[in-house]
Amino acid sequence: MNKAFFVLLLLPVALAAQPVRRDSTLQALLLGSQYAASVLLRPEGPSRCDYDWSSGQWRDYEPAWHTGQVIWGILEAQKITGDTSALPAARRAGDWWKTLEIKDHPTLAGFLRAIHGAEVGELINFTTLADGTPGLFELSRVTGDRSYADVATRAGDWAMQHLFIPETGLMYDLVDPATGEILKDHSPHFQKEKELSINEVARPNTEGFLYADMYRHTSEQRYLDFFLRQCDTLVARQSPNGFWMDFHPNKAETGRIHPRFNLWLAESLLVAFELTQNERYREAALRTARAVQRWPTKDGQIYYTNYADGRRDASSICGSAVAFAGIVWLKFRKMGYAEFDRDIDRAARWVVQNQFPLNHPDPNLRGAFLETWVKNEGGRARVYVRDIATAFGLRFLAEYSLP
Questions:
Q1: How many CB atoms lie within 10 A of CB 105?
Q2: Which end of the chain has the smaller Cβ count within 10 Å, N or C?
Q3: What pLDDT score was predicted for residue 7?
């Protein structure tokens, strides 16, 4: 092969792994933050969630955690850009989040009406609550208003008392807000005729590191003890491939691996390491971070569906996973691990280059970061651009932009 031609072939790949200029990340952060505040967050507070690119309509999907993540992204962006214009929108979103607290139910008082929606219906999903809480705790830290974190803490306390299964170290996932039933032997995630195992109705549920934040908010040791017990379960139940194949939305029988679930668990383990300096937690998170290195394409994109044997389904591009992987890799780089440098820069370049421009013809997308979640609904193909691509993109680029 001609040497010059070979160099030209490698050039796009080499450029993808070069550091992104800080002025480019600052511009992307400012545009993305303003988009999150003016478009993603509704006037009444919650995130609009998933945008159907085909019909031009928005669809609610687990709004409690989507809203909390958008809040977090805005708050992280403003730390870097210095632009606080999006803060009122973040507060408005936090005020909406507080209205979800259950106060008048005989058995659920203190919990949060964190409805999953979509295929799960009107059930409260614990991770819908927990995945949204980091933004609420950060909002309390930034504004000095403890009420946001207080609501999250009361909900977490209820869950600790009612959803935890001591003999397994797991927590039940789903609660019926009407009856107060905790789903212990059935789940809309699985076929009705199938007899479910405990792993299919309960999980370690450390996503969002809720109990670590509760500890930092209240200084109550019992919350830290509970969080570390959760993380001990994570370490014990990690699969040899670095993921957690025993728990949905991973699927051990097919080898399917969810693009964010495992990163959430790894992130929680790094929080546990930060609080304890226990190497077991860092080592488990490192196994996940290294395993995820196999997912990106040469230009940095990650797909929604990946398999344990290395296969990928390229029908949906998961921009939120590109950013989330970057966040986890960055945490290791700050601890002295240089092995993720090229992955981090490639991810940052992909996120910046795949932001919808300010002059995009669709005002619903101007400033959004890319995600293409393809769903077949009633025989019609739907392509969703999800708010979480922007939420995670803001978090990642804010961290990436630090000196």
A1: 14
A2: C
A3: 44
Q: How far is CA 29 from CA 75, 313, 349, 390, in A?
A: 11, 30, 13, 10
Beta bridge partners of 257: 306
Strand order of the sheet with strand 373-377? 57-59, 50-52, 380-386, 373-377
Confidence class for position 16, pLDDT limits 50, 70, 90: low
How confident is the model over 145-190, as pLDDT tens digits? 999 999 999 999 999 999 999 999 999 999 999 999 999 998 888 8
CA 326, 331, 337, 338 dihedral sign is positive
CB 324 within 8 A of CB 392: yes
Residues 290-337 have pLDDT tens digits of 999 999 999 999 999 999 999 999 999 999 999 999 999 999 999 999
- Contact between 172 and 182 under an 8 Å Cβ cutoff? The reply is yes
How far apart are alpha carbons 303 and 190 in whole angstroms?
A: 23
CA distance 180 to 195: 22
Per-residue DSSP letters for 157-171?
HHHHHHTEETTTTEE
What's residue 201's pLDDT? 95
CB atoms within 10 A of CB 340: 22
